[in-house]
Amino acid sequence: MRIISGTFKGRRINAPKKLPVRPTTDMAKEALFNILNNSFYFDELSVLDLFAGTGNISYEFASRGTQNIICVDENYGCIKFINETAEAFKMPISTIKSDVFKFLESSTSNYDIIFADPPYDFYMEDFSKIPELVFKNELLDLNGLLIVEHSKHTDLSQLANFSYSKSYGGNMFSFFENN
User: Fold this and answer.
1) N or C: which end of the chain has fewer CB within 10 A?
2) Residue 66: C-alpha distances to residues 18, 35, 72, 104, 131 (Å)
3) From residue 44, how far is each of 40, 41, 157, 166 by CA, in Å?
4) In a domain, 8, yes or no
C-alpha cells in the first residue's frame, strides 16, 4: 500500500501479512479523497477512522495535513502497526483498541469525518448500527460526513441519514449526513 498524495506522497507502507485486513485500493482511495478535497480543508478536520485496520485511510489524512486523527480497531496487531507507522512518520494519529460499537456507544467527541471500513461480510444489522450510533450519539459535526466502505453487493441506501454512494471497482462508499 502507498500514500497517494500530500507530504508523504509515494511512501510505501508494508503491513504484516498476518493482520486480518483488506486495505482500501489506491484507485478507490484516490477517488474518495478527490470527493473530500472539494468539500473540506484537511488541516481543519477532526477524523475518526473506525475498523482502522492498517491505518491506510488515516495516513492519507495525515499526509494532507489533518492534525486530529483517531483510529479505532479491536485487533491489537492493527493498533500496534498503526502506532509504529505513525511514530515512524511523525503523524498525529492516536489509537484506541476497542470494539467499534462499544466505542461509538460511549464516545462523546465530535468529528468532521467519520470513516468506517467494516468487514465486507457484515450482516445488514451490523452495517445499520454504524450510522444509527453515530447520529443517535451526535458524533458527527453539523456539516460532517460519515463514510462507510463496503462491497458493491451491499446496499445501504435505505439506512437513515443516507445521502449518496459511489462505486469504484468492487468497492463502494456510502455517504451519510445530518438531515
Assistant:
1) C
2) 29, 16, 17, 21, 23
3) 8, 6, 29, 25
4) no
Q: Which domain holds residue 161?
A: 45-176
* Sign (positive or negative) of CA dihedral 17, 18, 24, 30: negative
The CA distances from residue 83 to 18, 93, 97, 168, in Å, are: 17, 8, 11, 29
Residue 12 within a domain? no
Average pLDDT rounded to a whole number, residues 45-65: 97
> How many CA atoms does the CB half-sphere of 168 hold within 13 Å?
16
Model pTM greater than 0.85?
Answer: yes
pLDDT-above-90 percentage for the chain: 83
Please give the grid coordinates belonging to residue 124. Answer: 445488514
Mean pLDDT of 117-132: 93
Q: Among 16, 68, 38, 2, which residue's Cα sits nearest to residue 166?
A: 38
Q: How far apart are CA 136 and CA 132, in angstroms?
A: 6
Residue 13 to residue 11: CA distance in whole angstroms? 7
Do the Cβ atoms of 86 and 55 come closer than 8 Å?
yes
